[in-house]
Request: fold
Amino acid sequence: MKQTFSLNNLDCANCAAKIEKAVRKIDGVQNASVSFFAQKLILEADDARWDAIVEEVCRTVQRVDADCTVRR
Amino acid sequence: MNWYQRLSKKHRRTLWRILASAVLLALAQGLRAGGVLPDVWYLTLPVFLIPYLLVGWDVLRRAALNIAHGQLLDENFLMCIATVGALAIAEYPEAVFVMLFYQVGELFQSIAVERSRRSIAALMDIRPDEARVLRGGAETVVSPDEVAVGEIIVIRPGEKVPLDGVVTEGSSELNTLSLTGEAAPRDVSVGEEVISGCVNISGLLHVRVSKPFGESTVAKILELVENSTLVKSRTENAITKFARVYTPAVVACAALLALVPSLVTGDWQRWVYTALIFLVVSCPCALVISVPLSYFGGLGAASKNGILIKGANYLEALVSPDTVAFDKTGTLTQGCFRVTAVRPQGIAADELLTLAAAAEQHSNHPIALSLREAAAAAAAGTPAGAARPVPAPLPSPEAVEELPGLGVRATVGGRQLLVGNARLMESQGLDCPAPEGIGTVVYVAQDGRSLGSILISDQLKPTAKQAVEGLKTCGVRRLVMLTGDRAEAAEAIAGELGLTGYRAGLLPGDKVAETEALLKEKRGTLVFVGDGVNDAPVLARADVGVAMGALGSDAAIEAADVVLMDDNPQGLVRAVRIARRTRTIVWQNIWFALGVKLLFLALSTVGLTNMWAATFADVGVAVLAILNAMRAGQAG
Reply:
């Protein structure tokens, strides 16, 4: 399944790139793309573990950039 | 509104912090220089710590949080090391200055990004907020996605058209500027289609909704524009990768510089100071921000011209188009048939048209439509009071017989009429002179006698020739037309436009095969331009698929990589120009930022610079790169 999330307080382009890289490494994530300008994250991941993956994505975003949060 | 009022609250707060800190720094420096503040560390350090913490507390906080999360080498952390290091070797004003200027750079960057985001938001202005729907005889204001297909909506002058539909009542002019970049208003009246996102200028319209909001033109465009920033250019990806290597490499060099020469020479102060300069220029910000900012601006500039590009990668590919393949009908030609020549034999031209139109009166074939249109125009064009009487409405045909693949046989005014192609005439033993000019020839015969022929052809778009010339000027090597039409027709058009080649008689499937062949021969990007109606597979196969005249055609918006909202092929030339300008700006920034950073790394190792200059240069580069990147957003 594929869904778009808004990111709050995504302030640096480098962080956006780092978030994208980190989210792609999460198990079960097929593809992820972060647009620094649209402040959005498009996530494509396994349906079966969707909720767990989204949880992990939120944690990862916070870990990479402490101020950035995923709006759900 | 002045510039200050346009800043967000967050930006204003940062700005005041920077100003206050700068004043305090100047004050502290003054006190120390004036001898008021004794030069002992336990007095000077706290005095300088006030402006330092005032301006840098959030950087310190983020650095601490990120370290706790295992994120080393993040910009905040590097700035902290650089400034804390400077404090440790008693370079207090430098420490404050580095932090201060880092924040100036960050603030500037943040404002620039916000401005760019706002320009996209302006484009999003086409999003309609509400629709007036007629329910039970009264107007109800609802959200556009609550309106069902088939309902009637009312659009007052000055309002946006919220949904696609057909006018059932009223007439008006529509402003399509935000959709097509075309300033001339478009007239609409009963029976005509209106497209969501236009603005109703003059009259009250009633419109029957033809598509749900989710499938409407405006929703598709918004989705396209929003998603376009998610597709990254190769340059952007390369810079991101480079940044990943650059920062650790510079930090490693800094660590080595702080330790090795110091241990050898014992001059810790000098080499730690040099290492701190390395840290100051270790931030890849100027590069990482300016590349996507430029592409973002380029995409925005294209949108303002009615060119929607689905991602920075396509904008990048459009820089070097090598081969451009065109579909013919609807792309280079207008896609509507008109009578272009009448060659009567022993009869007046108008009469010939009238007879042919009469025989074809009940047909809906495009040829028949164009014959009737021409006959009507000829009738209207006859001056009143002329020698000949004004022709009456078309005589009714009797005993109409359709001859598939040949034409039509009918009795008009008691005489047998044959209207059709050369094969029909030959089968009747009539001579049919070879056609001059390009198009479909319709022959007319009455009671076994030839009355002449009518030439019907599609017409070139007036802008097609300029578009081809423009592309040639841009360095396109091959311009090829792919068409299902006859070779003679294709040759004439190719010759007139100055194309370098054509492939005629192609079935839709053949166009894909031809595109594959062109892909093998190309040296740069292969662009295919079509009207998006039957050429989705070709649009997908080409490096860049361009759909034209897409206003209202969602299939085209879906299949293409680049969508020209109006049907002017010159849009492609404009897209190439925007792509080139964007690329130039991107590379200017890359070389400029890298050059200055490397220069300062080199100067600091030989002791020719100091932290003040390095900070100033680093932030200055970022600011200049951002200003340059924002140039890409100006509509070109």
In short: The beta strands of chain A are 2-8, 29-35, 40-45, 69-71. Residues 2-71 of chain A form a domain with the Alpha-Beta Plaits fold (CATH 3.30.70.100). The helical segments of chain A are 13-24, 50-64.
